Amino acid sequence: MKIILVAGARPNFMKIAPLIRALDVTPMQPGLSENNISWKLVHTGQHYDYDMSKIFFQELEIPEPDYFLEVGSGTHAEQTAKVMVQFEKVCLEETPDVVLVVGDVNSTLACSITAKKLNIKVAHVEAGLRSGDMAMPEEVNRIVTDSISDYLFVTERNGLENLENEGKLKEKIFFVGHVMIDNLFYQLNRLNSNTFETTPLKEGLGKYLFLTLHRPSNVDDSKVLKRILDALNEIAEKIPIFFPVHPRTKARMEDLGVDLSQNIKVLNPLGFTEALYLWKDAIAVLTDSGGLQEETTSLGVPCITLRENTERPVTVEVGTNTIVGTDTVKLRETVLNIIDGHYKEGQIPEKWDGKAAERIIQILSNI
Ligand code: UD1
Questions:
Q1: 323: CA distance to ligand 1 center in Å?
Q2: What is the reported pLDDT for 26?
Q3: CB of 46 closer than 6 A to ligand 1?
Q4: 221 CA distance to ligand 1 middle (Å)
Q5: Which atom of ligand 1 is nearest to the CA of 46?
Q6: What number does CATH give the domain 191-339?
Q7: What pLDDT digit, counting tens, does each position of 125-170 carry?
Q8: Considering only Cβ atoms within 10 Å of each terminal Cβ, which end of the chain, N or C, has fewer?
Q9: Ligand 1 proximity of 106 Cβ (cutoff 6 Å)
Q10: 25 pLDDT band (50/70/90 cuts)?
Q11: What per-residue string of b and e applies to 26-45 under the rule 16 or more CB within 10 Å gives b?
């Protein structure tokens, strides 16, 4: 069987790395697994800056992609269309049996549609998640990708229920756990065994928060962004905040011209290891990312999500996540409670055990 793996944007890279490791357990030759699955890696180039892409390939030990499509940024239609045109050529040349896409970015959507139109089977890793918020571009990507996928690999029970409620056939759905958590545990082991040279950033700092912010709903509207940054400035009077800034957010902050407290330590986007090194010891993570809600849950780090909803409810029901939206009063209150040592204890969700990629490859090789 021949599989094409697709990676396009930063949150995809953490999900692809463990899949490649599982494919290549005892490689008979590079790109051919012991399960007789041969594979090729396509990087669409949706993310292209060194610190949004290449550093992840290096740190997560992802091999050079077989194809780099160099689509770059653009409007949603432009970006999606460019990926489709380029990816169709790859599919025609490689004639894979399965195209495997991960997550919910524009590259996920574009490659799944392209494959399906060529009658190639589509496997979606991280299927079934639903925020119920159609203003989120990722929600559209999730729904369309799931609706045409042949193999739906699900991270949490809620995803299973969503797919069943939408009438997907049970035999297409596989509850396997989460490849992102496979990657996290693997990288945490490497970090703990000192293979990574850490920066002195947090030494002697005491308690601190770790912040990420990049959702269009938070940063594209200048009033919303200003309100959030004002609240963060207030919080920073009590506790320092590390803030690696996504390119989208950087551009919007420059437009806004807002002054940030000295206690907010603004950084360029971080590689995986450095980010993990900082957030794993933070007293809380403040974020609008999807993946960090899950990663914090699996390490028991309190997470405050600056969104009105989550497509990953297990992180709230079982884990350490609290949704505060853009309610800055609730945000401040929750941070103060955490500083005072009052916060729920989370548990690790079912099947988040570091073995999801192995399960997925096993299932695919049995097909
Ligand atoms: C994308 C994903 C989002 C994911 C996020 C993680 C979609 C719809 N969104 O959003 O789900 O959480 O990635 O980062 O696919 N830019 C750079 N360098 C880069 C990439 C982008 O400077 O390497 C800038 C460009 O100005 C671009 C903007 O960032 O216009 C946004 O990039 P884009 O890929 O369109 O969306 P993200 O906001 O990164």
A1: 23
A2: 52
A3: yes
A4: 16
A5: 34
A6: 3.40.50.2000
A7: 999 999 999 999 999 999 999 999 999 999 999 999 999 999 999 9
A8: C
A9: yes
A10: confident
A11: eeeeebebeeebbbbbbbbb
Per-residue pLDDT reduced to its tens digit, 329-345 = 999 999 999 999 999 99
Residue 100's Cβ-count burial label (10 Å; 0-12, 13-18, 19+) is: buried
Which part of the chain is CATH 3.40.50.2000?
2-178+352-366, 191-339
- Does CATH place domain 2-178+352-366 in 3.40.50.2000? yes
215 CB near ligand 1 (under 6 Å)? no
Assess whether the C-beta atom of 49 lies below 6 angstroms from ligand 1. Answer: yes
Structural tokens at position 85: 């045109």
What does pTM read for this prediction? 0.95
* Strand ranges inside 234-276, DSSP E: 241-244, 264-267
Catalytic residues: 214
pLDDT band at 31 (very low <50, low <70, confident <90, very high): low
Angstrom distances, CA of residue 133 to CA of 145, 165, 169, 307: 16, 17, 24, 11
The protein residue with its alpha carbon nearest to ligand 1, atom 14, reads 10
